[in-house]
Amino acid sequence: MNAVPVTILTGFLGAGKTTFLNYLIKKHPNTKFAIIENEFGEINIDSELVVKTDENIFELSNGCICCSINGDLFNLLNKLVTGRYKYDHLIIETTGIADPSAVAGTFLTDYNIQTAFKLDGTICLIDAENVLEVIANEEEAAKQVLFADYIIFNKCADVDQATLNKVAETISKINPLAESEFTNYAESKKAEILSLKAYDKEKPRLQLGLGAKSAQNIFGIGQEQSFHNIVSQSFVFDQSFDLLKLRHYFTVMLAIQGAWFYRIKGIINVEGISRRLIIQSVKGAPVFTEGAAWRDDETRQTKLVFIGKELKRDILERGIKQCFYKPANL
């Protein structure tokens, strides 16, 4: 059984999530979607499409399924797996004030769920005109933007180019992990919108501002990027790491100060291990997974991105360097 890809759809209230979802369904007529929403009724479904209901699961005449959580997400996922429902892709639409990392954590930390589902990425819909003001004043909205793997700036027709440029530059600095595009009516032009592979273990995407054709620094690795109290800190290390020290550092740090970190993502070079170690932070805890093997002809570098509130670079760097591998005779 192949794991079903999962897309988390988040975004500000009124940003166009419903419009985008309907656009996806129309653009992919041969894909049978299972759609989970926090509260049934937020997504407008034509009552004429509903052909069968089973408690909180609605089967539609176009072959898609729409579900309401109204309780435990795990139980609903189990029901989708054990039922006779046929679907190719799962979309989870969160409320306008939800933290998407809590939803993502279900798919990154539970082995049983990982056998049936594979998290592909988080898409965030935001109003291009108001995004900078909103994330500066609303923490939950900031979390959505900063956790996103792909950002759709919507409703751009009435926004001048100078503002759009400022928005793109600011967001790319504080969330260097995400790709983005400008749209109207949420009509994304990205062909692989349902195949972001943001959590692919073999080819983890960690941009860190590096161009595809060169290692030239685009947004400034090693430089603090900030917007109001939101800070992005990126690090690159050539030294290898001690796995036990590293696990201890991240576990303790997030247990004590997890509320200050919106997202951590990285590829780590661990001494004595031939494969990359991938780290993600989910719900205030580190999640480590094994990635692709290091090639003999490549430099084994560690790349880490921390995104959060008022993150101090010197404190982070000092803590990370304490996890460097040191031979026993030193």
TrEMBL record:
GO CC annotations? cytoplasm
- Name of the protein this chain belongs to: Cobalamin biosynthesis protein P47K
Limits of the CobW C-terminal domain? 230-324
Q: Which reaction is the catalytic activity of this chain? A: GTP + H2O = GDP + phosphate + H(+)
For whether the record's keyword set contains Hydrolase, the answer is yes
GO MF:
hydrolase activity; nucleotide binding
Looking up CDD domains in the UniProt record yields: CobW-like (cd03112)
Question: Where do the TM regions start and end?
Answer: none
Question: In which domain of life is the source organism classified?
Answer: Bacteria
Matching InterPro entries: CobW-likC_sf, CobW-like_C, CobW/HypB/UreG_nucleotide-bd, P-loop_NTPase, Zinc-reg_GTPase_activator
* Function in brief: Zinc chaperone that directly transfers zinc cofactor to target proteins, thereby activating them. Zinc is transferred from the CXCC motif in the GTPase domain to the zinc binding site in target proteins in a process requiring GTP hydrolysis.
Keywords in alphabetical order, please. Chaperone, Hydrolase, Nucleotide-binding
As for family, the record states:
Belongs to the SIMIBI class G3E GTPase family. ZNG1 subfamily.
